[in-house]
Amino acid sequence: MARPLEPNRRRSLSDPLAAALMPPPNESAADRERRLEAESEAKRVSDGIDEMLRAEKKEKKAKPEIKVLILGQSESGKSTTLKQFQLMHATAAFHADRIAWRAVIYLNLVRSVRRILDAVSFESDQPDEAEDQETASGCAISLARQSSAISVTRVPKYPQYRHALEPLRELEERLIRMLSSPNEDEPTHTAPSKPDWSTYANGNSNVQVTVGKNGRPAPFITIPPSWTSSPLSPSTSLPSPGGSSNSSSKSKNQEVSVHHTSNWKKAFSLGNRIKSPKSAHTNEIEGWWDDPSDPVHVLNSCAQPMLALWKDPSVKQRLREKRIRLEESSGFFLDEISRITALRYFPSDQDVLKARLKTTGVVEHSFSIAHSQRRFITWKIYDVGGARNQRHAWAPYFEDVNAIIFLAPISAFDQVLAEDPEVNRLEDSLLLWKSVVSNKLLAHVSIILFLNKVDLLQAKLKSGVRLSHHMPRYGDRPNDYENVSSYFYNKFGSIHQTFSSNKEREFKIHLTSVTDTRRTATIIQNVRDIIITVNLKNIHLM
Ligand SMILES: Nc1nc2c(ncn2[C@@H]2O[C@H](COP(=O)(O)OP(=O)(O)OP(=O)(O)O)[C@@H](O)[C@H]2O)c(=O)[nH]1
Ligand SMILES: [Mg+2]
């Protein structure tokens, strides 16, 4: 018996796909029933999936997200840029965290002092024989030997300084241990309301802890290869302030970083303590300055010799001879010794921006930012570690990112990488830039380039350092800020022009000094507007 075609199938005979799906002409009634049941079940599943997709789309539309990745080599200013975003868009949280930075600032200061002691020690009084370049952290390394010895300035008071500042050695170790306390990533960990600073004492500063008590990975101190062990710089291996030049003196110049899983801020949050009255009668406030084991007491007692060391003309001269520019790294706290070592020192916004703590891994920060009068959008900003051994972690974030802020510190033309003293920092930035702009996964991503540290560039050029000595192609063009900065502007711009995987993308260059809050706020506003305009179009909000 001929079976009538179902009405909605008749029309489909000309459609090859529909024809292929037609039921067999000799289908029995039972088969037909089974088929219809199966079709109805398939439709139910398909409708469910459609519904889920609609809901996801609706949710995405209701809660759109913008993802921004901050890239660049180590010490380019990525975390500082992130701090500026926090200062603008999460002001209360930024202020709440300020006290936690106290330990980092202390450590920055103590390490700067030790670096000076190392540089002026009698043991390091070998004549300087080289044209020096600096590592990212402001230390000079020898690159080429000259036959004629140059006389060196001696620091007559070195033994006194060394003796008076001896307590800082133990303090440095203690601060490092506190920042990398192995318990800090435990989810159950709560900050002690009154941390016992003394429990961190008597430790070994160069411990690398990789497994916490619970068997999970714990925060650790990352120790990149030290420049002191470079075969290029045999004469610059610095003895310790105590005079010994052993293996510990090698690692002590390595930079401290705290892994992104670490909860170090919690351990240093003394917010509760400074508000609690010590005595209900007098309303006297209890603070860390009342705790004899707090690091501030060691610092406070060393303030005078630290000041004398930093102001000593023979020290300044010795640092000049060794081409050590501490102001390029966290050395700026040396100009603030009295303020920072005061018992009741509380970090300012500017101190937090300048505090240096190397990033490892990738750290996600969320902000809710208004894009119109009453509508907010979630921004996820990813701050990455920029050292070479950290860069493999960037790629997984490339897939769904909307914008990249790339930082290239253009003051670094006469410096080398801390992790590889054979590589000039600016050359490294240029190569990194090229690989980012030419990456096909990033073809549709807006890119904002910050040519950063222009304040240091200005100072460096003014002090007479010539770009052409380090980049011969610059030739005999004027060695002033206008010419040098526009040279870099064009150089980075033309790499984008030549190698970009998408020349039509939104692309902007800014000359920045991201420690300067006022100027950076304007730039961030501008960057924010561009990113929002481009991306809201894409997620259909405009
Ligand atoms: N003078 C000056 N210092 C800057 C500027 N930008 C950053 N710094 C300082 O340079 C140091 C390094 O900056 P960070 O933001 O920690 O560098 P980073 O790119 O996050 O480095 P990694 O975490 O190692 O990848 C910090 O002490 C900053 O305060 C700038 O424009 N001018
Ligand atoms: Mg960082």
From TrEMBL:
GO biological process: adenylate cyclase-modulating G protein-coupled receptor signaling pathway
Gene3D superfamilies: GI Alpha 1, domain 2-like (1.10.400.10), P-loop containing nucleotide triphosphate hydrolases (3.40.50.300)
Ranges of Basic and acidic residues composition bias in the record: 1-13, 29-50
Chain spans, region Disordered: 1-50, 180-258
Domain of life: Eukaryota
Biased composition (Low complexity): 224-251
Binding, Mg(2+): 359
Annotated Gene Ontology cellular component terms: cytoplasm; heterotrimeric G-protein complex
InterPro entries: Gprotein_alpha_su (IPR001019), GproteinA_insert (IPR011025), P-loop_NTPase (IPR027417)
MF-aspect GO terms: G protein-coupled receptor binding; G-protein beta/gamma-subunit complex binding; GTP binding; GTPase activity; metal ion binding
SUPFAM superfamilies, sorted: P-loop containing nucleoside triphosphate hydrolases (SSF52540), Transducin (alpha subunit), insertion domain (SSF47895)
Polar residues bias: start-end ranges: 199-211
Keyword vocabulary terms for this entry: GTP-binding, Magnesium, Metal-binding, Nucleotide-binding, Transducer
Annotated GTP binding sites: 353-359, 452-455
Name of the protein in question: Guanine nucleotide-binding protein alpha-4 subunit
UniProt source species: Suillus luteus UH-Slu-Lm8-n1
